[in-house]
Design a protein that fits this description.
By secondary structure, this protein is an alpha/beta fold. The protein is about 40% helix and about 20% strand. It has 15 helices and 16 strands. It has an eight-stranded parallel sheet with strand order 4-14-13-12-11-10-6-5. A three-stranded antiparallel sheet has the order 1-2-3. The protein is globular and about 60 Å long. It binds the ligand CNc1nc2c(CC[C@H]3O[C@H](OC)[C@H](OC)[C@@H](OC)[C@@H]3OC)c3nc(N)[nH]c(=O)c3cc2[nH]1. Ligand 726 binds near residues 43, 66, 106, 227 and 276.
Amino acid sequence: MNFPDTAFSFTLDAVCPVTGARAGTLHTPRGDIQTPVFMPVGTQATVKAMAPFELEEMGARIILANTYHLYLRPGADIVAEGGGLHGFMQWKRPILTDSGGFQVFSLSTLNRISDEGVWCRSHHDGTPHVMNPEWSMSVQKQLGSDIAMCFDQCAPWPCSREEAEGAVRRTALWAARSKEAHAREWQGERRQALFGIVQGSVWEDLRLRSAKDIIPMDFPGYAVGGLSVGEPHGDMYRILDSLKGVLPSGKPRYLMGVGRPDNLVEGVARGIDMFDCVLPTRNGRNGTLFTPYGAVNIKKKQYERDFTPVDPECDCYACRTFTRAYIRHLYRSGEILASRLCSWHNLRFLIRLGEEMRKAILEGRFPEFRRAFLGRFSGGEA
Ligand SMILES: CNc1nc2c(CC[C@H]3O[C@H](OC)[C@H](OC)[C@@H](OC)[C@@H]3OC)c3nc(N)[nH]c(=O)c3cc2[nH]1
């Protein structure tokens, strides 16, 4: 018996008549999430260098954690004993967990894939593990996330059409098993929403095939997987265009692993509601900062006596309080505060970008917002 996900619903608040960009509200038992939304990545039950109260201050309303990582360390049983992810990391708002499939391929030292699942060796200590839909649903229940992802197969890029077809077939097989295992895990208890994932790499007909496999399984939300894996942005946008009229309009759409500010704007313009990416914190740790004109690398000598904020338009703690010269000094001195301030700014930049796109869509001026933002943002170094 499949429990209705009554604790979850999605309201479309406005749709841009020109582009189809959407402003919505995802209602969850732990609070509402207004979309478009950028979700900070907290792989090992922490958004690197940020404390929960700081995430709250910068406007984070949902964060991510990783099933694969937490299963291997500290162990899902320890997280469960600690009160699940919400108790363990003291984050009271919604949490989304990835299913582990993608990480197995990107991190494990050795892996064998079959329809049963994935046999792999831990990238920590080489111990053998079998990961499959049943394993993933059990671990995501122990973690207690509010949104879980189906166990899928994300084809690498580039890959052959046959490889992409195989991933589409297996992803459908595993989606059905994920749904069954998820309903068994949550029988009669507080529910967790399970999102489906569409694969198909850069072939539009395979994307359509995957959508036709996954959508009838009636998930409360759908992710576009298999992108942001090295393919040109043009291919990403073409695939999103091909899915725009196919994914159910009344359900949230999540583009996994994306992305740079311009990718977020172009994704929203193609009907995407939710995004995640490690860029803000990863770039933050190496001193690369988002600004409306592109990325600034704070370690450059040109900022040595630059006593202006990183981004004068930004309302984050780092930009309100410190100058580029000071943050450059911290970075070059190897001070921990450099990583914290740069991560803080980059996270706020993307969270605020989501807020501003939502406002533009509600006010009927998204095309103008998109043109103005992309006109200034160079993508590379500012
Ligand atoms: C970068 N391009 C990127 N990331 C894709 C992730 C992983 C997202 C995952 O990406 C990191 O894990 C490695 C993040 O941790 C560092 C995770 O946050 C917890 C995040 O989980 C949602 C995908 N996950 C699944 N299950 N299926 C996908 O097709 C897929 C595609 C991605 N493209």
